[in-house]
Amino acid sequence: MGISLSSLINIFMQMEPEKTYFFNKKSGKVLSFSISNLSTKDMEMLADIKKDKAAWLPLPKRPNSEYYKDMEEFIPTLNDIKLQERLKTALNSGRYASKSFRDQLMGKNYETEKWNDFQRKRMKSFVISFLRQSGFNI
Fold first, then answer.
1. Cα–Cα distance measured from residue 127 to residue 82, given in angstroms and rounded to the nearest whole number
2. Average pLDDT over residues 66-87
3. HEC secondary structure over 33-92
4. φ, ψ for residue 130 (rounded to 5)?
5. Is 23 contained in some domain?
6. Of 14, 39, 111, 137, whose CB count within 10 A is highest?
7. Same domain, 44 and 90
8. pTM of the prediction?
C-alpha cells in the first residue's frame, strides 16, 4: 500500500471539507486540491490521475451525521454528569454543534484526550472499511 494505516487515518482526520482527495494505491501518495480553485499544478495533478485512473482512488469523507453520532455515543462514557449535560446542550445548539461540543471540552485535558481517542477509533474503523471495500487486505 505504500503508506501506514496510522498515516492514512491521520490524513482522513485532517481532511478539509472544501478539498478533494485522491489516494495512489501503489505508492500510497495522497493528493488534495480544491476543485473550485485549481492552480496550474493542481490541473497537472488531475491530468496525471486521469491518465492512470486504475492507480488512484478518490478518498471519501466521513459523513457529518457519523460525527454527530460519535458525539452522542461519547457523552455517556464520561463520569462528569455536569459535563455530560453541557455536551448534550451543545449538540442541540444547531448549526455549530460540533464547535460547541469541542468548546465544552476545552480545558478538560483528560476528557479531550478521551474524545480524541474515541474519534480516532471511529475513524480507524471507517478507513479500514473503505480499504477493504477498495480491495485491500487489512
1. 33
2. 96
3. ECHHHCCHHHHHHHHHHHHCHHHEEECCCCCHHHHHHHHHHHHHHCCCHHHHHHHHHHHC
4. -60, -45
5. yes
6. 111
7. no
8. 0.84
